[in-house]
Amino acid sequence: MRIAITTPTAATRRTGNRATASRWAGFLTDLGHEAAINPPPEAGADAMVALHAWRSAQAAAEFRAAHPSKPLVVVLTGTDLYHYLATEPETTSRTLDLADRLVGLHDRVADALPDRFRHKLRIIHQSARGRAARIAPAADAFEVLVVGHLRTEKDPFRTALAARRLPSDSAIRVLHLGAAHDPVWAEAAQAEMAGNARYLWLGDLPPARVRRLMARARLMVLSSHMEGGANVISEAVVSGLPVLASRIDGSVGLLGPAYPGYFPKSDTAALAGLLHRAETDPDYLRELDAACAARRPFFAPERERAQLGALLAELR
User: Fold this and answer.
1) Fold category of 142-299 in CATH
2) What is the strand order of the sheet 34-37 is part of?
């Protein structure tokens, strides 16, 4: 099949949607299909995969109008599930109505969907490839990564605020990787660095540099208010990097309900307590590491490719 993958993300931006589109294009090629990201309508396609129900609403509607019997798959993002279904219900629900299948990226997606759409839902866990081996950690600091662009949904400075509460003898250093959504966010990151010696914003780094830092760091924090199934969790887990995460469905749906590294979202004190415990209690850090290792098989590329192949087989 010739499969068009539509994503609202510009080709030059490193975001979750674009990463998913690029990875799936590779998998679809491996499976014997032709895949193109955001091709022109005149290129033609036998099926469409639309990333983001609300942002891809026009593209999905145009494809369905032009091709009433061809398969349309819509991949649900965190903002679709936890924002646009409530704030833009007509547009978002219309896209879900048009779709032949809906793809969720974590195990709790069904809880956020209206009943009438659940029969269309299939779950595909996003995969990742880590470095072949861990790197010796920094000798002068207990490095904690925050990997995510600076925007409201990510609650991007929660870890920096928690680090301010740590004891004076703590060696924790927060390295924040991600682009600023706009100049206001960049200014806020610069101000946080100026007032917080434990925080360093490194901006949007190439994937190879991110993987290297993941292989060296001691811990990663995902403090988001909403996630559709953050690929950065997959990346951390396969890199052998333990995770602390806000207790939201998007993270619990990836790490499991019994995972020992959750804190209530926006709870700075609770996160500070977990950071201090991870730094000072080797048994707790090993517990986090073991829990992540148990989830690693869920994020194998071969598994994601097989799930994608099974989805397409349903639509033939």
Assistant:
1) Rossmann fold (3.40.50)
2) 34-37, 2-6, 47-51, 72-75, 101-104, 121-123
